[in-house]
């Protein structure tokens, strides 16, 4: 599931860092049925964390109502060009992904 890297863009302007993240995940709700009528098990991201130079700048708990291949956008103060930004997620089946970028 976590084979495709996240697409992360982080740009600092005027002391504020704007972050845009595109994650690859199926985000199944557990309410859909497959072609044979069986319920497709729930499989969704339940925790997302963003860290700038190992300091947490965002922590979010998600549920099954978030769409497939979720897009996340947020802003924070305190980052500067060249700082390391790490985005990590974990899903309800224990799978996880972590990717890092440099703030531009």
TrEMBL record:
Name of the encoding gene: soxZ
Segments forming domain Sulphur oxidation protein SoxZ: 8-101
NCBIfam families in the cross-refs: SoxZ_true
InterPro entries to which the protein is assigned, alphabetical: Ig-like_fold (IPR013783), Ig_E-set (IPR014756), SoxZ (IPR030995), SoxZ_dom (IPR014880)
Name of the protein this chain belongs to: Thiosulfate oxidation carrier complex protein SoxZ
